[in-house]
């Protein structure tokens, strides 16, 4: 899950079309690199999943509660307008979104459960708190499934085949084909497939990160999704793990450690 957070941090200076850098030779981290709403909600969903303990109705309530608590603790993290209104609402309801927020926050679901079916079920629950449109659910499930398959030893061709056959995404494009015409977009349909392609085409964790950011668009979210999968497949270099944790506030670091301990308790490696 820490890979997803690093993807958010590295992608943050390059978000939006006017900041996009369509090459792979960018500085990986700078003083402008910072965590955003992607990280805050990734942490919130992880806590909610742990508290929900695999029971769907309980998990829905816990994820909703944690997202609202963390969102209010970090009110200026970069949320979209509909989500900000949801955070402020006295009676929050799902609002039919198919934005990429459901996929950017779902990484923990790929780590915390022992079967693919349970992973898909819990990913769906985390999406439905706000993003209950079928495409919002699909984006979260595809991302979590790719993480689960990557961490359980499946090959890239197997991950590609599963995602294409199950979710109908077109993964038969290359980064070079996507990059010239790709622009800032915040839907699952136009973020999740591109993020998975950036992983599939990579040669290692850092290369996946550079692929994702170099595509442009919603670069922090795209890299967040890509690197959540890449960490599960390749692992994450220790120096990047250390630097990621160094850039996070204490409450987020402590909550990441809670997630990691719970993943290990379930006999699942969180690294």
How would you characterize the overall build of this protein?
The chain has 271 residues and is mostly helical. It has helices at residues 2-11, 37-52, 56-73, 81-88, 101-104, 116-128, 134-151, 156-167, 175-178, 192-200, 205-215, 219-234, 238-246, 250-265. The protein has one domain: Orthogonal Bundle (ADP-ribosylglycohydrolase fold). It contains 14 helices and no strands. Helix 7 runs antiparallel to helix 8 (156-167), helix 7 (134-151) packs parallel to helix 12 and helix 11 runs antiparallel to helix 12. The radius of gyration is 16 Å and the shape is globular. 52% of the residues are buried.
In the CATH hierarchy, what is the architecture at level 2? Orthogonal Bundle
**Unreliable parts:** 267-271
Order of helices and strands: HHHHHHHHHHHHHH
Largest sheet: none
- Classification by helices and strands: mainly alpha
Amino-to-carboxy terminus distance: 8 Å
Query: What would the CATH topology be?
Result: ADP-ribosylglycohydrolase fold
Rg = 16 Å
